[in-house]
């Protein structure tokens, strides 16, 4: 009689109890797979930023603007190859709940900086540059709302007022649709002309939200950053220059500490499962005290019984966890389509799945170690004396 057969029969001798434990593990790994995939997508998207791109923001907080005059001064610094700037618009479409990442930019320099990240038709690019009331829409937004080139769309702001009519609306023409050149690049955005925005807003004239620059190489990043911050030290708007990766993580931090939230939720789920499964396994082995004693009497080595009990726990974890990860993969796929590209690269990736399998094995070992150890140390005389 093989060990695998004995293991399987012992695990399913109480089918309802086994099913409930598998269900608990299944739910835990569905939660892990979905949240872990979202976290990985956020982190991977930020980490894919170019190594030689820096972002200059106000030292107090990146919500505070910088004078437009800084653009020319920074462009003249040795080691700065390309430069652009942007303003956060606080945009939404029709309803304030339909938030869209909307930025007022300098068209030519912005598209030059992000030339390796975005694909846009050359004719559409030229139209955007030459039409002050136009915008370029990311593929995800164009798909979500069914916008086409030439459409005239009202974009609202929850921050700025249009001095032309006192409303919070800017009427913009779709000059082009931008597609991601990299899978991790988010196309859930709108960019429109800074010059139009600067002339029409009621406050904050001649200021920019942040300045993005491209250095000659990543090797000069620290020197260029220090030069910029020293230049504006003790001014009314001191600067903080950091890598684009660091800026992206700070921007995402507005949503809260995603890593901490996911860790707490997944940690709570696993702690609960650990207690439930661990306690149930101890009870299951205690119920089989007589059988274990008989097996030892028949000559079964103690270590073979130890392997049986520990293997039972690991198998239970895998039978609940693997289907949980598979369902999580399906849910993530559905979520990715529903989000219309708002979270680029959202998928149950190999690193997330691999870590999930490692967690399954760890869960099986942790919950099965104590009952397996008790079975290993079980004294035959003492065990039979309990009958």
TrEMBL record:
Q: What residues form the membrane-spanning segments?
A: 20-42, 258-278, 314-336, 348-370
Q: How does it sit in the membrane?
A: Multi-pass membrane protein
Keyword terms of this UniProt record? Cell membrane, Membrane, Transmembrane, Transmembrane helix
Cite a GO CC annotation.
plasma membrane
Task: List, for all copies, the residue spans of the domain called MacB-like periplasmic core.
Answer: 18-229
The segment(s) forming the ABC3 transporter permease C-terminal domain are 266-380
The UniProt entry lists the main location of this chain as: membrane
Instruction: Report if keyword tRNA-binding is assigned.
Output: no
Q: Is-annotated flag, keyword Lipid biosynthesis? A: no
**Where would you find this protein in the cell?**
Cell membrane
Highest taxon, organism lineage? Bacteria
Among Pfam families, the record links this protein to: FtsX (PF02687), MacB_PCD (PF12704)
The protein in question is named: Putative ABC transport system permease protein
Q: Which organism is it from?
A: Nitrospirillum amazonense
């Amino acid at each position: 009689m093989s060990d695998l057969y004995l293991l399987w029969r012992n695990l399913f001798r109480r089918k309802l109890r086994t099913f409930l434990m598998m269900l608990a593990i299944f739910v835990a790994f569905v939660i892990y797979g979905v949240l872990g995939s979202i976290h990985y997508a956020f982190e991977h998207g930020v980490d894919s930023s170019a190594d030689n791109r820096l972002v200059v923001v106000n030292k107090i907080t990146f919500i505070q603007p910088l004078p437009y005059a800084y653009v020319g001064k920074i462009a003249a610094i040795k080691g700065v190859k390309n430069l652009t700037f942007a303003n956060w618009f606080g945009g939404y479409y029709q309803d304030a709940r339909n938030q869209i990442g909307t930025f007022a930019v300098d068209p030519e320099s912005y598209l030059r900086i992000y030339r390796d990240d975005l694909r846009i038709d050359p004719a559409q690019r030229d139209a955007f540059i030459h039409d002050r009331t136009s915008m370029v829409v990311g593929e995800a937004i164009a798909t979500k709302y069914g916008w086409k080139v030439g459409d005239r769309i009202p974009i609202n702001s929850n921050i700025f007022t249009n001095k032309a009519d006192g409303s919070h609306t800017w009427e913009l023409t779709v000059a082009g649709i931008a597609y991601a050149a990299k899978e991790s690049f988010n196309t859930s955005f709108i960019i429109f002309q800074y010059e139009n925005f600067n002339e029409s807003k009621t406050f904050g004239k001649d200021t920019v939200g942040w300045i993005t620059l491209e250095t000659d190489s990543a090797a000069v990043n620290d020197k260029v950053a220090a030069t910029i911050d020293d230049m504006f030290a003790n001014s009314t708007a001191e600067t903080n220059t950091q890598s684009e990766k660091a800026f992206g993580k700070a921007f995402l931090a507005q949503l809260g500490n995603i890593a901490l939230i996911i860790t707490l939720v997944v940690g709570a789920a696993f702690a609960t499962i650990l207690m439930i499964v661990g306690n149930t396994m101890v009870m299951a082995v205690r119920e089989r005290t007589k059988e274990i004693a008989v097996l030892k009497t028949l000559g079964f080595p103690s270590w073979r019984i130890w392997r049986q009990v520990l293997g039972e726990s690991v198998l239970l974890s895998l039978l609940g966890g693997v289907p949980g990860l598979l369902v999580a993969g399906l849910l993530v796929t559905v979520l990715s389509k529903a989000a219309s590209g708002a979270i680029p690269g959202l998928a149950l990736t190999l690193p997330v799945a691999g870590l999930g399998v490692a967690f399954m094995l760890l869960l099986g070992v942790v919950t099965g170690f104590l009952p397996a150890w008790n079975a290993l140390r079980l004294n035959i005389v003492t065990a039979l004396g309990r009958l």
